[in-house]
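User: what does the whole thing look like in 3D?
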Amino acid sequence: MSALPEEPLLDAAPDGLGSPGDARQQLQELPAVIDGGPSCLVDPTGEGRAYRLIGEVEVGLDPEGVVVHRATGRIYVACSRSNFVAVVDPEELRVIETIPVGDEPIDIVVDEKTGRIFTADARSDQLSVIDAHAGKVTATVPVGCYPSGLCIDVEGRRLYSGDAAGSTMSVVDLDRLERIGVVDAELGAGAVAVDPRARRVYCVNFLASSVNVVEQDTLEVTARLPLLAGPCAVAVHHESGDVFIADSLASTITRIDGCSVEKTAEMAVPNAPVGLTMGSRDDRLYVGNRGDGTVSVMGLDGTEWSRIPVGAAPGGVWEDPLHPGRVLVANAGSGTLTIAEDLLDGPPPRPVAPVLHPMVGKKMPALSLPDLWTEELRDLGEWAGRKYVINVFASW
Amino acid sequence: MVDVWEGKGAFREARTFCELWGVQGTVLVDEAGDLVEQLGIRGVPTNVLVDVDGTVAAVGASTPRDLEAAIRELLGPGTPLEEAGPSSDWHWQTEPERIEEQLSLRATRATEG
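Assistant: Here's the predicted 3D structure for the full assembly of 509 residues, as structure tokens:
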């Protein structure tokens, strides 16, 4: 394969949108609320639209996690390099307040019983507890080193935290706001998910490329499965208990049978899946493709139903519980929140088709950038007449 | 390599990253995101393969297997290239001991702090 597949999302756009690469610029030029505008022209069914872009809101630096507070309907975005949570009004599509938390908040979850919001402050080795009505942090909970993934068992009144540098999973009592247990996980422990019916917690280890299966009642690790490279997000199917894990460096989603706890499939996604959530209809996944600037709407069999262009380098993805089908995406690269609506009732007649990136076959633009170590400007002339690979990366 | 979208402290963050992961070779900093905007790049990691005449041959190819295939195509038939190996071999192309050392140093500092 010489280029990443991309859906010809906008090829048929009658307003002159010519390529997926133009989509973001076009989106920025559109009004905040798009209701039936040109970004809604994706139509794999031939009958109706696949998605609708509602808006994109600047929130802060490197937003990674996003959640909706049911009582207020507001959207809370953990901006990891701004060290705050941005509160977005979904009607006005703007940040109405920022709440300072600890250093590098990565993940964010809400306790549906109390309405408290929790952030995993990675570089503070703590959780911040936010009172949404007061708009401030009212408590902190020390956990393991570099917490980077959270999940909540509302009925069981527990919160689980994957502590990446500590290679542990912390267990926190949601009412006492205390750490009540520590489970030995592995290096890069991050994403966690709970299956309350099976009484299991899954702890995904990014650096060890594995998942630990933990019994909720005893906190014993009962199984370990090796995964492909860089697993960093996990979701559980509500009905079957099947587990889906995003392998960010392999660009796949691994499916694990909820009964046998065995791998049953490795399903390809566009590029570097970092965010993953189970759709409320239980028939699809939403996958944030960090390497592609898109969110895939994906059937549980691995078929990509549609691909929604969002901001740069998307991470956390969440479905608004108050508006089923409304997808919220934290875009780490562009520092924005994208709000989109998945309009598909089920699998489309044909899945997303691959296309070449619009730059393929074109000349490299002029390049003059400072060297990381010397800070001297360097330009393309240095590499003229050679074949080369440019790897574009970010440190987060 | 080109570092992008750091938000703030780009040089400091990128240097820390390169030291942690043992990144060697030329690293440029696209602090304002100009190059990625011109290239229409919307995510990381992304590889851009450029042919001898300056033409973009491929964009994407972020997994080792895809990158190997794209490089083979860029180099043409008959050019020897070391196999990327099975997926189980390319979890991390840096020394795990080095990562553990860095992370445990951080953990120690956090405890002491």
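In plain terms: Residues 1-47 of chain A have pLDDT under 50 and may be disordered. Helices of chain A lie at 23-29.
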